[in-house]
Amino acid sequence: MILVTQWTVLLLLLSPALGMVEEERLALREKARAMFHHSYDNYMEHAFPHDELRPVSETYTDSLMELGNLNLEHLSPSYNGTALTLVESLSTLAVLGNTSEFEKGVSWLSENLSFDIDVRVNVFECTIRHLGGLLSAHMLASDPDTRLMPGGYSGRLLALAQDLGERLLRAFTSPTGIPYAWVNLRHGVRKGETPETSTAGCGSLILEMGTLSRLTGRHQYEDAALWALRKLWAMRSPADLMGTTLNVETGQWIEFSGGIGAGVDSFYEYLLKAYILFDEPAYWASFHKAYLAAQRFLRTGNWYQDADLRTGRPTHRQFGALQAFWPGLQVLAGDVEEARRTHRQFFAVWETFGVFPERYYYDGQAVHHSENYYPLRPELAESTYLLYQATRDPLYLKVGKTILTNLNRFTKVPGGYTSLRSAVTKEKEDHQHSYFLSETCKYLYLLFDPHPPPFLRNKQFVFTTEGHILPLGFSRVPLRAPLTAVVKPPCDTCQTINLDEHKISYMSLRVCPNWAIDSRTFKSLGGVESICHIPDGSPDHRCKNHLQCGVDAASCRHRTCSPAGFCN
């Protein structure tokens, strides 16, 4: 049984460490600060306002249109970047207390950034990086306790975020409501766009989209992300397992094998963090089922394997670098002892190679022949920070020191920090990912900082999957459609009606059924039709996906397509 407590969820108990003198800890904090500024300053000098830095050649890459696009298809020759690394850096600048650079960055983006551009982007990457970065920076800039904008703040970042949100909404036009993986920010989904997407890509949008809705009062962003998440959750197997890739047009799995790593990882993360941020118990109920299934079918010793969602049988026995987020998620769920064991196993791989190879076969103790690179991934630093906050075990300060030391030893170059083409040979690749500044540097700095800034010390918050800070309590507007329910069709009014008195249909009254009415009373009236009633698409109630099922007249509940292919 997983125990969730306020202190394990929010991780805000800050106290001096044992086992490492404060002078050494402060020195490591300053090394983490220097790491960020070496990355940031080189980006600003050699790459800004383009997307990311090439630190070896000291040039730039407009990578937003390439993120997730392995075949580099449909690239726009006119795209010149959207200051991606600057957007990603703002929340870290706030954590480091660099008020002047934060204010300068917000001012530049407010005056110069536009998303009215002809560029095809990955919906997931654009959401977690650009949308999440803008929302977090807006909330930090708006908070008087942060004192980050002494010259005043116009709120322009929220307007930019809303404009981007409107453009991303165009991706949610598939027959299932699950978003396409790619959308053109100016023209929407291109004709013939691939219907293939990942579980993480379509199931990890709720934090950013939900926050945008609650800040603007416009529900369409949260509704779209929540609809997609519900559709995806409904596709789980009877064992509560998920696949890795699916077709957004048919709602069918393409890859039936799934795990906790690449292609699925942030799906688990956002179920739990949505519960924390929005205080909606349905998210916890779904996460709890998914987590127990992962522990039952995917955990093998202190490793995690991939499994076929239909049978639960193992398909791949391997460690992927993205799995390193899992101990941190276990901490947030209150399963701290499991987190310690998992983290210890994963860190052993880091110690073996000095960094993480992207894929490692733990049975054969061999690195994958081609996926042996290290793209500056932050997940181990994140889990180390969260474990230290939960346990105060000085071991995790030592782990953090090892991570920081190895990054400086193997990835630092005069022009910034670079990805490695091989975790074995340490050959350099010439790419500094924006998440290195939004996550890796931030988590290491916070790990070693005994006195975080007051806005972190005095408030409750969650980090997005990209490391952006979202404070709790900024809005407690109830969700219009919990994860376990559906969006109800609109009614003119929703008032209490006494059926025995009126003896007329809800349809003629143009009202929703009274939710307090006893179902037997309803049936005794011969199945009174309601404004909410939508018949199933087929008279024999056969279906291939949930959209072919209607809405129940009595309860306004959307009927779902069962695994056997019938609406129920």
Q: How would you characterize the overall build of this protein?
A:
It is found in: Endoplasmic reticulum. Keywords: Calcium, Endoplasmic reticulum, Glycoprotein, Glycosidase, Hydrolase, Metal-binding, Signal. Its main location: endoplasmic reticulum. The active site is at residues 125, 265, 358, 379. Residues 1-19 form the signal peptide. The protein has 2 domains: 22-290 and 411-471, Glycosyltransferase (Alpha/alpha barrel), CATH 1.50.10.10; 488-568, no CATH class. The chain is globular. The protein has 20 helices and 19 strands. 42% of the residues lie in helices and 9% in strands. The strands form 8 sheets. Strands 5-6-7 form a 3-stranded antiparallel β-sheet. The chain starts with 5 loop residues before the first helix and ends in a 44-residue tail after the last helix. It has helices spanning 6-10, 22-46, 84-96, 99-112, 123-142, 156-169, 199-203, 206-216, 220-234, 265-278, 281-298, 326-332, 336-353, 379-391, 395-410, 435-448, 454-457, 499-502, 506-509, 519-524, and strands at 52-54, 59-61, 120-122, 182-184, 196-198, 245-247, 252-255, 257-258, 299-300, 303-304, 306-308, 314-316, 319-320, 359-361, 366-367, 412-413, 416-417, 461-463, 469-471. The chain has 568 residues and is mostly helical. Strand 6 and strand 7 (252-255) form a beta hairpin. Helix 12 (326-332) packs antiparallel against helix 13. 49% of the residues are buried.
Structural class: mainly alpha
Low-pLDDT parts are 1-18, 476-482, 484-532
Major sheet description: 3 strands, antiparallel
What's the CATH architecture of the largest domain? Alpha/alpha barrel
How many independent structural domains? 2
User: Which topology of the largest domain does CATH recognise?
Assistant: Glycosyltransferase
Radius of gyration: 24 Å
Strand order of the largest sheet: 5-6-7
Q: Mind telling me the CATH class of the largest domain?
A: Mainly Alpha
Number of strands: 19
Helix content: 40-55%
Subcellular location: Endoplasmic reticulum
Active site: 125, 265, 358, 379
EC number: 3.2.1.-
Keywords: Calcium, Endoplasmic reticulum, Glycoprotein, Glycosidase, Hydrolase, Metal-binding, Signal
